[in-house]
Design a protein that fits this description.
Layout: H1 6-12, H2 22-30
């Protein structure tokens, strides 16, 4: 998350667990749907 004002608010309300965790969580959830192919790039 890039917004340093919103990030602590989201964490307090449980919307996010920690900084930099999003891509790992998405990859874990997508394992439930093998028919969906993803490709990571920067």
């Amino acid at each position: 998350m890039k917004n340093k004002v919103l990030a602590p608010v989201f964490k307090k309300f449980g919307i996010i667990e920690q900084w930099g965790n999003g891509l790992r969580l998405i990859a874990e959830e997508l394992k439930k749907y093998p028919e969906i192919k993803i490709e990571w790039s920067e």
